[in-house]
Amino acid sequence: MFKNIKSLFIVEEEPKKEVAKSVAKDPPKPATEATPDIPSGQASQEFMDILFKAMQDNNIEGFDYLEFKKSLLSLKQMQMDEPTRYQSAFAMAQTLGATPEKLVQTAQHYLDVLKNEEQKFQKAAANQQEKLIGTREQEIAQIDAALKTKAEQIKQLTQEIEQHQQQAAALKKEIAEATIKVETTKHNFVASYQQLAAQIAADIENIKEYLK
After folding, report:
1. Could you give the percent of the chain with pLDDT greater than 90?
2. Residue 161, Cα to own-chain centre: how many angstroms?
3. Which of 51, 147, 160, 211 would disulfide-bridge 100, Cβ 3.0–4.6 Å?
4. How far apart are CA 91 and CA 88, in angstroms?
5. The predicted structure's pLDDT at residue 2
6. pLDDT tens per residue across span 81-138
7. What gap in Å lies between CA 49 and CA 45, rounded to an integer?
8. How far is CA 78 from the centre of its chain?
9. Alpha-carbon distance 109 to 113, whole Å?
10. CA separation for the pair 188, 99 (Å, rounded)
11. What's the pLDDT tens digit per position in 146-178?
């Protein structure tokens, strides 16, 4: 199960931060003036699990980078420096047919798996952004145009103008909340991907340096 792969990569979870939501109280302004604060991304358990599951689904049979990673972790508690730990793990791996080239090749395979997941996520996020934000921005633009027109009309239209103002305020609130949700999700995925990919990339560099 992907829990076995998950145990090979130590991920410290950070406490979730509450994000202040903007509330539209004033009459609506052009949508371009309302820009909600987007929190920085952080690795999340949800996305880590998705990435680990993808690695599990694309696990290479036989001894590969993941098995080598497991051997490295088994030696982590021993008093040895990093080069010695890599070399000791490789000594065991050689008995199972491992080579530095194969370890790098299979590690790159898992980086490719993660990259594919990132591409799928970016596509899904773009579709969600269009669904949650794009149509609302069009509505805001239409309401802004209606407000400008009706403001020039006679006083009998005051009640109708007020109604449009309330609609625009509600839509701006939805956009602010939806924007934070979409951008937070995107940033959390990127942080998860970068943290995991960096570990693998570091292992590749160490394999190349220590296992010549």
Report:
1. 48
2. 41
3. 211
4. 5
5. 59
6. 999 999 999 999 999 999 999 999 999 999 999 999 999 999 999 988 888 887 787 8
7. 6
8. 34
9. 6
10. 35
11. 888 888 888 777 888 888 899 999 999 999 999
What b-and-e string marks burial along 34-52, b requiring 16 or more CB atoms within 10 Å of the CB? bebeeeebbbbeebbebbb
Exposure string (b/e) for 2-11, b if CB count within 10 Å is 16 or more?
beebbebbee
Checking if the pLDDT of 25 tops 60, the result is no
* Alpha carbons 127 and 90: distance in angstroms, whole number: 45
Q: Which residue has the tokens 């949650």?
A: 132
Q: Position of tokens 């190349």? A: 208
- Tokens for 168? 């625009």
Amino acid at 94: Q
Give which of 130, 127, 145, 125 is closest to 31, Cα–Cα. Answer: 145
pTM strictly above 0.70: no
